[in-house]
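Troubleshooting log. The previous structure file for this entry was overwritten by mistake, so regenerating from the original sequence record. Sequence copied from the archived sheet and checked twice against the printout by T.R.
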Amino acid sequence: MSGLRWYVVETLPRKEALASRNLDQQDFANFCPRFRTTRSHAGRTMAVLAPLFPGYLFVRFDPGNHPWRSINGTLGVRRLIGFGQTLPQAMPEFVMRKILARCENGIMTPAGDPFERGDIVRITSGAFVDRIATVERYDSRERVRILMEFLGAQHAIEMPVDCLVTEACQS
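Regenerated output below.
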């Protein structure tokens, strides 16, 4: 089995691209997932690619066969994430597989809207577990605004998408 694993590098603020280029020059495979978003500046709205994890990128190497300590001295890099002076902490493989599976050419593909306005959902975790609510909207941050009745009134709450299931899926 190969010792190649993914590790996390903390970059200097807004220097992900610089760190990536310099790691490339040292023959370290690296990955900075990005997503499409819009930014407004001076009254203009532009489509841009932004880092999914600002200030961080992933680098892949075998700590037994690569001079990984040089990563900490790379221009644009603040430090390799780890504990003390020992080996850096590798990312869990299943997490990296999920991130890589959602990327196409380094850009996160939209997950698709799991809910539509008016869907009836059940809350699966948190303070309102097992309560029923109605979806009002789903946004690009993968949060869902739901309407739920409690204390005799209708209340709007935002929740992560993974805390909800469609009530029709329940048996």
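The chain has a mean pLDDT of 87. Archived copy saved in two places this time.
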